[in-house]
């Protein structure tokens, strides 16, 4: 049903009952024919429709068992009295086509009142959304400023540029966490001596710090945290172990949970005994194999250095192809290599793309501004081969 928004004031609704089978056109013709001259020239339906003072007569009909029933609607831009006369005239129709009929006007609705109700309801809805949005956009300003200042204190430590708090050098003790977001969360709560390993391949900077300072490993309470902790305990002199509650991540912990977890830390030896781990570091054979991989990666990195090329290796470290670094992301999606070695900066976009295409290792010249490194992805830079 279409209403003329510029003219309609009232909506006439009527019920049609016909003792026979008729069509819509029969109903409309009967109304025009039987009301002609009935209300005077001023209220002739045809003239009123031409001047847009009434709308089209809309009819919906259903036929059942030799009878027709339905509804009609008609919009009016006339005043109340004239609209009431039109309604009464429509009711005067008693035959449609050859059939006896009856039209009963059931309701004359003031369209403006209906529109006003809808307007009020919609205005309430818009206002509620505005209030909700204002609350979401106006957090505690003091807390927001405080946290911003603390996040700005994050630094990058060592030749691997590991995300860290500003007190790594000043403090006699350090807290080793998994990623940059963990460091940020600890900074928010005033802990400034945390440093991130950024992957399961433990950087030499972490190993050196563990030899110099009292080191506490503070990892997530999931499987990934356990794997990083095992690797860390194998290669570094960690003194204490603290783990977030099961399934929880350090980056999401509240101040109270952080303090409680660190307070309940246990000696690294005790943790290793409970997990059935041996104190010895990696066995001789795997170590030689790892050194062999390092030698290969270093050689390939030196080959591509300076010419902006990338090398793709399969899961057996066999070369797949070489590509230009500007086409690196497209070629990764196409070839899906196991290892990517290239001359350039590792970005977050590259890490996300590589992880999505099952790349296991990325070796490059330097590491850029990174927010998250998946636990399944190893990152190596040129400084680690020096």
User: What's the story with the biggest beta sheet?
Assistant: 5 strands, antiparallel
Query: How many helices does DSSP assign?
Result: 13
Structural class of the secondary structure composition? Answer: alpha/beta
Strand order of the largest sheet: 2-3-1-5-4
- Which CATH class of the largest domain is shown? Alpha Beta
- Per the CATH scheme, the topology name of the largest domain is Dna Topoisomerase Vi A Subunit, Chain: A, domain 2
**Which whole number gives the mean pLDDT?**
85
The number of distinct β-strands equals 19
Low-confidence stretches: 281-290
Distance between the termini: 79 Å
**Domains, number:** 3
CATH architecture field of the largest domain: 3-Layer(aba) Sandwich
- β-sheet strand percentage: 15-25%
Question: What proportion of the residues is helical, as a percent range?
Answer: 25-40%
Characterize this entry briefly.
This protein is 40% helix and 24% strand. By secondary structure, the chain is of the alpha/beta class. Residues 281-290 have low confidence and may be disordered.
Attribute tags:
386 residues; alpha/beta; Alpha-Beta Plaits; Dna Topoisomerase Vi A Subunit, Chain: A, domain 2; Cytidine Deaminase, domain 2; 3 domains; 5-stranded antiparallel β-sheet; 19 strands
Characterization of the model:
With 386 residues, the protein is an alpha/beta fold. The chain folds into three domains: 104 residues, Alpha-Beta Plaits (2-Layer Sandwich), CATH 3.30.70; 130 residues, Dna Topoisomerase Vi A Subunit, Chain: A, domain 2 (3-Layer(aba) Sandwich); 101 residues, Cytidine Deaminase, domain 2. The chain is built from 13 helices and 19 strands. The strands form five sheets. The protein has a five-stranded antiparallel sheet with strand order 2-3-1-5-4. Strands 9-8-10-11-12 form a five-stranded mixed sheet. The protein is elongated. About 3% of the residues have low confidence.
